[in-house]
Design brief:
single chain; mainly alpha; two-stranded parallel ribbon; two-stranded parallel sheet; 8% strand
Length: 121
């Protein structure tokens, strides 16, 4: 996420976040195996998340679209992309969004690597 934070801080990328997504990030960054993977403490990762959140645009997604994803808990991410009128939904889990019933409604689902390639000058 470091590259995205740098792009966001420079104003080259405008991330959107909803309450559910922020809480999901918070939960993930508080897991011991994630902290070990990052070689960071919970405190430093929460400080990073707070910094990243400060450059995000908060979106109140209440449309309750039901794209019928395999993992029902991921539906809020599509709702957020729709409410934010986002260009991209960025995820490493492309397969989780491949069978959504709501497709081609204003955003493209890409991996972080694909987006970085798209943003290269």
């Amino acid at each position: 996420m470091g590259n995205f934070a740098a792009l966001s801080l420079r104003g080259d990328l405008q991330p959107f976040v909803g309450n559910a997504l922020y809480l999901e990030y918070q939960d993930l960054l508080n897991r011991e195996h994630i902290q070990a993977l990052c070689n960071q403490t919970s405190v430093s990762l929460m400080a990073f998340l707070d910094g990243f959140a400060s450059v995000c645009t908060a979106v109140d997604a209440r449309y309750l679209w039901r794209p019928n994803l395999q993992d029902e808990a991921d539906n809020h991410v599509i709702e957020l992309a729709i409410a934010a009128r986002a260009s991209y939904l960025i995820t490493n889990n492309l397969s989780d969004f491949a069978n959504a019933e709501l497709r081609h409604i204003g955003f493209e689902v890409v991996t972080p690597q694909q987006l970085l390639r798209l943003l290269e000058p």
